Amino acid sequence: MKREMLSPRYTTRYEDLLLPDVQDILIACVDGLKGFPDAINSVFPQTYIQLCIIHMVRNCLKYVSWKDYKAATSGLRPDRRGGTDGDG
Fold first, then answer.
1. How far is residue 2's CA from residue 87's CA, in Å, rounded to a whole number?
2. pLDDT above 70: residue 65
3. What percent of the chain has pLDDT over 70?
């Protein structure tokens, strides 16, 4: 996509990152908003664009039937009790 066709708002924000010391971005985790990947790659062409895991899960769950929803999502809930895996 040509740079002039992108949303100027996005492209300007990424160009602002060039000013201090940012020379390149290795990975950009985005939320799926149209124009983000193109704007990032127009300024940082080698950047790998990754969809945020929360948005990936949400996009997948829209194809799960309502009757299977609880079973499909039960393993996705984070353990909020605290601690780490090694706390046994």
1. 52
2. yes
3. 64
Amino acid at 38: D
Three state DSSP letters for the chain: CCHHHCCHHHHHHHHHHHCCCCCCCCEEEECCCCCHHHHHHHHCCCCEEEECHHHHHHHHHCCCCHHHHHHHHHHHCCCCCCCCHHHC
The whole-number pLDDT of residue 86 equals: 53
Question: Stretch 13-39: mean pLDDT, rounded?
Answer: 76
Beta-carbon count within 10 A of 41 CB: 19
Could you give the CA distance from residue 80 to residue 5 in angstroms, rounded to a whole number?
44
Buried b (16+ CB within 10 A) or exposed e, 20-40: eeeeebeebeeeeeeebbbbb
Comparing CA positions, the residue from 46, 41, 51 lying closest to residue 3 is 41
